[in-house]
């Protein structure tokens, strides 16, 4: 009787698309579901995107338009539940990891490509902060895709790869202007390797530049029409208020980045202890690998990368962080930790260089460790931002009582405008958005009573069918001068108190006013 061949463990085989997608979908589901259960409101940036997604514009006063376009289409599909920004953030995090995997398959074996992808997935920008849908998170996919395409274009010199690279770089720029930092890394790499001495490279760069400008041209036209407002906003964001303050913020920035990369380091340390105890043995793996020799010292994976690929990973992967720190130190500019969201997308490969041993065994261990870290971080984040914050009575955005505020706004509106739908909330983005999403899918925010900040209204028409003014005198909810003027002039107004979280916690002083519909509403009803 012939003996049956030994079963080959799943991870002993080269991983394919199905396994990678399973891992990414599991990550998206874990973080989205736990945040949806624990949060009563999204973060500030997520709410901003829910508000901006009201219409498709070629630009907004603070940023380029692409993330808001994606949110607009998501709203068409799902409405405006508070969990939508969590889902969107994780989708773009997963897309970014997908292109890390694609690059890894160009650089090394499928096993090691997936290990690198798993390692970088536990850094804060792909995991914990991947739940925050803003322009930083939305840029993850286009930056990682552009790195992958840049690698392909410089290796193959095919016109198609250069054109795709230019198009994706245009989309990255349409997401956030900080994409220029990654483009600078590309340029320095071409300069360092001498590729700019090649006529083929210059032809490719011209192809890429043409595609880049074609994609970006509508937004460039919008910028010219709107006095380059987002560029002035970006410039103002960099002002630190003095060199000493800037150096302090730079130190804080660097320490924050260390903390946000720390989960990957923890996974590698845990792997090292595991391998020291168990070696390279795992049930069923050695039996299916004829090359496995338990007595031979395995070289680190670093040695299997070519000198060209190591140079690529170092220059393209480290330049954004190093250059940003150096420029900030020289100019005394301000830095926020979240601006580094795309600076560490290749760090999984640096972790990969430390590993050694049989590919299937190490992938199995890294997968177990990374899945455990994701679970612990997601549960900890959900519990801390949900039940613990509420029990402590903290004024956390995650426990903001948007539904209670919306209920009061609707009650006052119906008292003075019975039978008419409430379509406009005059407020800032945060409070107005939290009220609007709970009123109806068609209710929009007239941000700070400003036509420029609220392009989904035709100029001068936002208040034609009436509105509810809402603000608080406490903290960031304090009203703009225009909102305060509307409140002061209103006939029907008042103040309600709403508990933020626990009964012993802070209370929100909801200043409300009802603005009646005008005769123009009959001509252009909403």
Describe the model:
- It contains 19 helices and five strands.
- The protein has 526 residues and is mainly alpha-helical.
- It folds into two domains: 10-382, no CATH class; 400-523, no CATH class.
- Strands 2-1-3-5-4 form a five-stranded mixed sheet, sandwiched between helices.
- A hairpin with a 7-residue loop joins β4 (492-499) and β5.
- α7 runs antiparallel to α8 (159-173), α12 packs antiparallel against α13 (307-331) and α12 crosses α15.
- The protein is globular and about 80 Å long.
- It starts with 16 loop residues before the first helix and ends with a helix.
- Mean pLDDT is 90; it is low at 1-6.
Q: What is the domain total for the residues?
A: 2
- Strand fraction band? 5-15%
Mean pLDDT: 90
Q: How widely separated are the two ends?
A: 80 Å
Helix fraction? 55-70%
Features:
526 residues, disordered N terminus, 59% helix, mainly alpha, 6% strand
Topology overview:
Layout: H1 17-38, H2 44-52, H3 66-78, H4 84-107, H5 110-121, H6 135-138, H7 140-156, H8 159-173, H9 179-193, H10 199-225, H11 229-237, H12 243-278, H13 307-331, H14 347-354, H15 359-392, H16 402-416, E1 424-427, H17 429-439, E2 444-447, E3 467-471, H18 481-489, E4 492-499, E5 507-515, H19 520-523
Parallel strand pairs: 1-2, 1-3
Antiparallel strand pairs: 3-5, 4-5
Helix pairs in contact: 1-4, 1-15, 2-17, 4-5, 4-7, 5-14, 5-15, 7-8, 8-10, 9-13, 12-13, 12-15, 16-17
């Amino acid at each position: 009787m012939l003996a049956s061949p030994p079963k080959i463990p799943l991870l002993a085989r080269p991983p394919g698309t199905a396994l990678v997608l399973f891992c990414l979908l599991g990550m998206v589901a874990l973080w989205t579901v736990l945040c949806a259960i624990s949060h009563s409101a999204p973060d500030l940036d997520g709410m901003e995107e829910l508000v901006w997604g009201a219409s498709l514009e070629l630009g907004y006063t603070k940023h380029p338009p692409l993330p808001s376009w994606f949110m607009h289409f998501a709203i068409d599909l799902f409405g405006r539940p508070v969990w939508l920004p969590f889902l969107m953030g994780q989708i773009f995090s997963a897309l970014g990891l997908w292109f890390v995997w694609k690059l890894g398959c160009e650089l090394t074996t499928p096993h090691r490509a997936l290990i690198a992808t798993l390692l970088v997935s536990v850094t804060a920008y792909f995991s914990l902060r991947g739940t925050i849908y803003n322009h930083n998170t939305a840029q993850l996919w286009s930056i990682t895709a552009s790195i992958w395409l840049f690698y392909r274009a410089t290796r193959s010199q095919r016109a198609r790869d250069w054109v795709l690279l230019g198009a994706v770089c245009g989309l990255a720029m349409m997401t956030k202007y900080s994409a220029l930092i990654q483009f600078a890394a590309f340029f320095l790499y071409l300069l360092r390797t001498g590729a700019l001495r090649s006529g083929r490279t210059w032809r490719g760069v011209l192809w890429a530049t043409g595609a880049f400008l074609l994609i970006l041209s509508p937004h460039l036209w919008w910028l010219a029409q709107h006095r380059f407002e987002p560029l002035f906003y970006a410039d103002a964001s960099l002002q630190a208020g003095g060199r000493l303050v800037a150096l302090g913020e730079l130190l804080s920035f660097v320490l924050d980045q260390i903390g946000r990369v720390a989960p990957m380091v923890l996974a590698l340390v845990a792997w090292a202890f595991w391998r020291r105890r168990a070696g390279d043995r795992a049930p069923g793996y050695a039996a299916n690998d004829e090359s496995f020799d338990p007595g031979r010292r395995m070289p680190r994976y670093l040695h299997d990368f070519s000198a060209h690929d190591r140079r690529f990973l170092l220059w393209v992967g480290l330049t954004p962080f190093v250059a940003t720190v150096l420029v900030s130190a020289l100019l005394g500019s301000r830095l926020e930790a979240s601006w580094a969201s795309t600076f560490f997308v290749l760090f999984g490969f640096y972790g990969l260089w430390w590993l050694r041993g049989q590919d299937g065994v190490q992938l199995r261990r890294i997968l177990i460790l990374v899945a455990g870290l994701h679970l612990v971080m997601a549960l900890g984040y959900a519990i801390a931002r949900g039940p613990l914050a509420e029990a402590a009575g903290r004024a956390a955005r995650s426990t903001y009582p948007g539904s209670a505020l919306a209920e009061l706004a609707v009650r006052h509106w119906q008292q003075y405008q019975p039978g008419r739908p409430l379509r406009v909330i005059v407020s800032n983005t945060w409070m107005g958005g939290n009220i609007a999403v709970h009123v109806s899918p068609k209710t929009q925010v007239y941000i700070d009573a400003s036509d420029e900040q609220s392009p989904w209204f035709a100029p001068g028409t936002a208040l034609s069918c009436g509105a509810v003014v809402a603000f608080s005198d406490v903290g960031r909810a304090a009203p703009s001068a225009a909102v305060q003027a509307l409140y002061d002039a209103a006939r029907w107004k008042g103040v309600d108190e709403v508990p933020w979280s626990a009964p012993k916690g802070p209370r929100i002083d909801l200043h409300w006013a009802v603005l009646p519909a005008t005769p123009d509403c009959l001509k252009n009803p909403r």
